[in-house]
Design brief:
Blueprint: E1 14-18, H1 22-33, E2 37-41, E3 55-57, E4 71-74, H2 79-91, E5 95-98, E6 111-115, E7 118-122, H3 129-140, H4 146-161, H5 165-181
Helix pairs in contact: 4-5
This protein binds ligand SHN and 1,4-dihydronicotinamide adenine dinucleotide (NAI).
Length: 186
């Protein structure tokens, strides 16, 4: 069995991050980049949270704080608290990340390599973040720049507007151009 590899559109959805340390900060940044509305609940928060567009509630996190959240990250340094919050979050049907135990998560965080809207996500399917990170560094050298991607995207739209044999020909030309540029056999 493998994990479901998918990209989720959760822009505008509420998320709660329990904990305010480095792990919570990293996860919060990832959620913000995907447009979620993040509330951070923790007695102590890393100073970098003050420059982020998040709501900070400075106290210990209770299951009631998770109400309405579509995504819950339990990243406190108290495993029992993380377990309890995750159990409550699962019950309400949220996507759940348990920072201390991936087996208790329905949501795992990959290493992400991006160029504009293009994203490559690496999951090892286990807990081996150094490998995900190292692979990400190799992969980043392979990504085409965003101007090139934009141009290919426009070319594809133009090809799809064509009718008859011109359409297939335009798509074939584009496919060949992309494959050659990416260094795979045309
Ligand atoms: C299961 C998973 C979490 C999940 O998805 O739930 C997980 C688990 C754990 N990570 C630990 C440590 C660190 N992780 C990082 C960094 C990253 N970790 C990420 C993902 C994942 N980490 C998921 C599996 C991914 C996979 O393998 O596919 C990345 C890719 C994405 C992200 O986190 O946003 C991001 C790279 C970002 C990049 O690309 O740069 C660093 C920092 C660094 O290395 O610089 C440290 C050390 C410093 C620190 O403590 O922060 C420990 C504690 C081990 C211990 O006991 O010390 C555990 C728990 C355990 O192993 O039990
Ligand atoms: N998945 C990953 O990438 C990693 C996961 N971990 C796990 O994540 C946990 C957190 O790591 P760090 O951020 O480095 O910890 P940290 O010690 O820097 O921060 C812990 C945070 O939890 C908060 N906290 C404690 N009790 C709380 C409660 N009842 N409610 C809300 N917040 C509470 C504290 O105020 C603090 O902000 C670790 O204990 C470990 O289990 C650790 C390293 C990497």
């Amino acid at each position: 069995m493998s994990l479901l590899a998918a990209f989720l559109n959760l822009s505008g959805q509420p998320a709660v991050v329990a904990g305010g340390g480095r792990v919570a900060l990293r996860r919060t940044q990832t959620l913000l980049e995907a447009g979620l509305q993040v509330t951070v609940v923790a007695p102590q928060v890393h100073p970098e949270f003050s420059v982020l567009p998040v709501t900070v509630v400075q106290r210990s996190c209770e299951p009631a704080d998770l109400k309405d959240a579509q995504v819950v990250v339990a990243a406190t340094n108290d495993p029992a608290v993380n377990d309890r919050l995750c159990a409550a979050a699962h019950q309400q049907g949220a996507l759940v990340n348990h920072a201390g135990d991936a087996a208790l998560s329905t949501l795992r965080f990959p290493a992400v390599i991006s160029s504009g809207d293009l994203q490559v996500a690496v999951s090892t399917g286990r807990e081996l973040p150094m490998l995900a990170q190292a692979l990400g560094e190799r992969i980043s050298a392979l990504l085409p720049d965003s101007t090139t991607v934009e141009q290919w995207s426009r070319q594809r739209e133009e090809a799809l507007r064509e009718t008859g044999p011109g359409r297939e020909l335009a798509l074939q030309t584009l496919r060949k151009d992309i494959r050659t540029t990416m260094g795979v056999p045309a």
